[in-house]
Specification:
The chain has 20 helices and 27 strands. By secondary structure, it is of the alpha/beta class. The chain has two domains: about 400 residues, ANL, N-terminal domain (Rossmann fold); about 120 residues, GMP Synthetase, Chain A, domain 3 (2-Layer Sandwich), CATH 3.30.300.30. The strands form six sheets. Strands 2-1-11-10-12-13-14-15-16 form a nine-stranded mixed sheet, sandwiched between helices. A five-stranded parallel sheet has the order 4-3-5-6-7, sandwiched between helices. Strands 17, 18, 20, 21 and 22 form a five-stranded antiparallel sheet that branches. Helix 14 links the parallel strand 13 and strand 14. It starts with 8 loop residues before the first helix and ends in a 17-residue tail after the last helix.
């Protein structure tokens, strides 16, 4: 693919309007009583909304480089706001809607935003934990908000756009096309913070557009495709691979209404492709098997391209989708790389691999096994954190913190996380991600976290599929010995690893790890520090016995 070095999001969207103006762009849900219909919105109509809001933001005082925060769930307004901020020449700072109030406030303060867009009263209420901040920012909402912030009015965004005439909106459009450059800062995205405090990743117009165009160059998208967005747009995976690829290619797009309605929305819309995380594909596979329903029908019957990212894709899940005639292709990337670095494609999809490097992205493995990369997709740096930036950007190469290998065919395999390496008391280095992936291949184990840094052996916290466990006890362990059954499962799954990589003891947690509890990032990665803190007593109990013989513990009361 020819390198496109001078593109901006403003240019991409402007070109899409010129080429596809009257074609359907976005399908918007409209709920009437119990029925849901999906109304098409043309590219031209979407453009009018974008330019009107951009003019309103400029009228509000947003100037080039000003940060504008958005705290909202996926909804059409999210897309309009993202593009409007680009045309207003501001910097979009999307904050995950699942974060707690103090976390939201911390990120608003860190980026120095003065304008905040919120979706609902629930999101506005998060700001109330810091009255001083509320006095310093201008808050606008998509839905009516009453008394969410004491002694502080939150106004409707629709009131801000009232009175904007076409000439004013078009002037803002023209100025953006003329003035926005590829090196302009487009967005600040705060990392999920699996370790340490979240940092604002600075991504330029060039970072985002080159990554979207190179991703499209690897995949066979067509203008008559329909894709459904299942992932939060506040995360860079969905932002680039759903939103900006959509604009660059011109296919049709719809946002699922919620996690709970995702499959129902797919059945109604019948998409040809989706992006999702491995956990979603695992849950859908389990549900389809439980219902005896063909996997393809679960997504509406037309899907021909499934992409997976955000975490490692278990081999058994990839194999099940392949057997069902659904290509499930893994990719790899980070927020700091906009995010895509590698992709599998329908023509080149090696089991267990994260794919090959996309156009203009270089990848190599450092002497210590770390994956390093350079290319037009690599971030400008961390917001106001020059030391943290210097630690990961060295001589033009971004150091990912991930461990991997590249095979003879150029496929990248992720083998672990450098900072998450467990060093046993014996000095042996253990990559827990690999072991956790093996454990969760078992249908009885939904989540696993391996622990053991500084210890003489490994232990694990397990979240189990209770229904599957109960059924397995009936068929294979009629005496009801859940401990023995799970110990057998662990032994089978880890039969392929070395002695020091064996899990000697385990505890079953009472509930799955979740975003709401702070134990998972928005992309469903384990927040190991939080999990270890929540289950400190259980972990201590696993190491309390003087013997290192295989044993197990349970906190869920199974007998």
């Amino acid at each position: 693919m020819t390198r496109v070095d001078g593109e901006t999001l403003v240019q991409l969207f402007t070109r899409r309007l010129a080429e596809s103006g009257d074609r359907p762009a976005l399908f918007v849900p409209e709920e009437r009583s119990a029925a849901v219909t999906w109304r098409p919105v043309t590219w031209s109509a979407l453009g009018n909304q974008v330019f009107t809001l951009a003019a309103a933001l400029r009228r509000l005082g947003v100037r080039p480089g000003d940060r504008v925060v958005q705290v909202a769930e996926n909804r059409p307004e999210w897309i309009v706001a993202d593009l409007a901020i680009q045309f207003a020449r501001g910097v979009h700072v999307p904050i995950h809607a699942t974060l707690a109030g103090p976390q939201v406030v911390e990120q608003i303060r860190d980026c120095g935003a003065r304008v905040v867009l919120v979706s609902t009263a629930a999101q506005a209420e998060k700001l109330a934990c810091d009255p001083a901040l509320c006095d310093a920012i201008d808050v606008w909402s998509y839905e009516p908000v009453c008394d969410a912030i004491p002694d502080r009015a939150v106004r409707l965004l629709s009131d801000l756009t009232t009175g904007i005439v076409g000439a004013e909106a078009e002037r803002v459009h023209r100025e953006a096309v003329a003035d926005v450059t590829p090196d302009d800062l487009a967005t600040l995205i705060y990392t999920s913070g699996t370790t340490g405090e979240p940092k604002g990743v600075m991504l330029s117009q060039r970072n985002l557009t080159t990554n979207a165009l190179a991703t499209l160059g690897m995949l066979d998208f067509a203008a008559d495709d329909l894709r459904v967005g299942l992932l939060p747009l506040s995360h860079i995976y969905a932002r680039t691979c759903d939103l900006y690829c959509w604009i660059a290619c011109g296919y049709q797009f719809a946002l699922a209404r919620s996690r709970e309605t995702a499959l129902a929305d797919c059945v109604a819309l019948r998409p040809t492709g989706i992006n999702a995380v491995p956990y979603f594909y695992e849950k859908v596979l389990a549900a389809a098997n439980a219902m005896g329903k063909p996997l393809a029908e679960t997504f509406g019957g037309r899907v021909r391209l499934c992409n997976s990212g955000g975490a490692a894709l278990p081999n058994h899940v990839a194999e099940a989708y392949r057997a069902a005639g659904l290509p499930l292709m893994q990719g790899y990337g980070l927020t700091e790389t906009s995010p895509v670095m590698t992709l599998c494609t329908p023509e080149a999809n090696k089991l267990g691999a994260a794919g090959r490097a996309i156009a203009d992205v270089e990848i190599r493995i450092a002497d210590d096994g770390e994956i390093v990369t350079r290319g037009p997709n690599v971030m400008q740096g961390y917001w106001n954190r020059p030391q943290a930036t210097a630690e990961v950007l060295k001589d033009g190469w971004f150091h990912t913190g991930d461990l991997g290998r590249i095979d003879e065919d150029g496929y990248l395999f992720i083998t672990g996380r450098k900072k998450e390496l467990i060093v046993l008391a014996s000095g042996k280095n253990i990559a827990p991600v690999r072991l956790e992936a093996l454990l969760t291949e078992d249908p009885l184990i939904e989540q696993a976290m391996v622990v053991g840094d500084g210890r003489s052996y490994l232990v694990a916290l397990l979240a189990v599929n209770r229904d599957a466990l109960a059924q397995a006890l009936v068929t294979s362990h009629p005496n009801g010995d859940a401990k023995a059954l799970l110990a057998d499962c662990i032994a089978r799954r880890l039969a392929c690893v070395s002695h020091h990589e064996q899990v000697r003891r385990f505890a079953i947690v009472e509930r799955p790890f979740s975003i709401e509890s702070g134990e998972l990032t928005p992309t469903l990665k384990l927040r190991r520090g939080e999990i270890a803190r929540h289950y400190a007593a259980e972990i201590a109990a696993l190491y309390a016995a003087s013997s290192e013989k295989s044993a197990c513990a349970s906190t869920m009361g199974i007998r």
